[in-house]
User: Fold these one by one.
Assistant:
Number 1:
Amino acid sequence: MQTITKTYNVYKFSELSEDAKQKVLEAMYDINIDYDWWNYVYEDAENIGLKITEFDLDRASFVHADTILSYTEIADRIIAEHGETCETYQTAKEFLNDRDNLVAKYSDGVKLDEVTEENEYDFDQDCDNLEEEFHKSLCEDYRIMLQNEYEYLTSEEAIIETIEGNDYDFTEDGELT
């Protein structure tokens, strides 16, 4: 029986040549998306009362979602939990403002925060349309969040952060050891 021991040099990503670095980036392009990378966005949506059921970032480019709470509750949660610079915050704020204006429109002119009984049908029709538009806007906001997350996770910056964070070693030509 014979034992052969082979010795070779290993390098950190930053020590590789530019060609070897490019080879590593191409080989590890999916390192950050080879799991359910979308879970954080799904959890965020559920926290505000929206359950994402499916999405596509390719040609179809959509998010489908079901509501868990009323649209007013969803908007209130977004206002409480999302920052003012977040697109969902702006969407929720606009919805709540439009809904308040709708209630005032169908009020008696004195109690602006109550819909009169004779105006309930018209209010319900308009409110259904408003809620449908709010739902579409939220789905689009979450599609954009998913798209941005995907683009970041597949960026060279994120791939390098993962490689360095996991302290990977490579051969001189960029092969993972």
Number 2:
Amino acid sequence: MPQPTSRLAAAAAGVGGLAVLVGGLGVLLANQGVVQPIQGFAAFAFVGGLLGAIGLILAALGLRATRAGSGRSGRDRAWFGLATGGVMLLAVLRGALAGGNVPRINDITTNPDDPPQFEYAKRDPATRDRDYAYPPGFAAQQRAGYPDLAPIALPVPPDEAYERAQAAAHALGFDVVLSDKARGVIEARATSSLFHFVDDVAIRIRPGPNGGSVVDIRSKSRVGKGDIGANAKRIRAIAAELRGTT
């Protein structure tokens, strides 16, 4: 006579598989522009993560229910639920832990005292209603969280620094929307690879001492209160391109 299948094990397999499906769809649909980036992220992080946690709990109960001598089958389903639920939850936790040691701010600059200003974004119909003022409360948090970020001194004249900045923006895959060499101003958009979040980037080049240049960068997220360090990482990448140290 066949053994009855454990309902807990079957539920673990179903919920774990659903967690991966929902999380994967969140990424895919946002990546393809079917849903807004924040909607795709919510499906991945909140719905997928919650289902993954539930799947893990059910899997643990299912493994206990199908232990040797229990008289119930379905242990393979419990292991499947453990694997899928665990993968989904780990993916969410990895992203959360990546930003655990950085300040919960989303507007980062090399010069909090005099940050570059956004011009194109303020007149673009898609973003002109957004507030692009640099929040005064961010300066202290940024200095504590990202003490390495500072104006970038280059031993080249402003014209050459401008060309380097243009090249850096293109090399990093940004969409340059404003370019004014005479004023030393560049503005661009950076789109994240998975969910296609769009962040705004402003670069300003000024004359520096001894014929050199000083470059300031600002990177601001359009959504969310924190950025898990993405804007600071972007500024460091631009700085590395400017210095030729990539």
Number 3:
Amino acid sequence: MRCVLLFALAVLPAAAQFRVVSIWFTGVGCQSCTESMGERMRRLRGVESATVNMKESIVEMRLAEQNRVRIEQIRDLIEQDGTKAIRAVVRVTGDLSNDNGRWLLRPAGGSLSYEIAGPDLTAGQITINGEIHQLHSDSGTLRIHVSPPAKSQ
């Protein structure tokens, strides 16, 4: 019975996930830190590709369709050697709901949610292209500013 339950959970599609992430950074301490950054990103389970553009100070990542990578994990990996993650552009699919006037997107695989700021939002499964201006939040909830159009699924 336990095997059947585990199999059923494994084949269920994830409710949401980040699919494309680009993070700008500053304050790289050394050349070897930069060279190892892409490799650190590729070690995350669910990362299909990760490249570091030193000239533009950006890490660009593509994630597998079924992944549980959180933007906070990526940010923390970038910052583990003293580098500072500044902002991110993301594409994420998930369940959008309105909670007392705040739009929240809930990714699969955890209890985290992201506040969504943008026009013409509708509850339900949605793909959002947006920008996170602050990768550290005093409230603990990161805000994604929607870049039109948001697509209902």
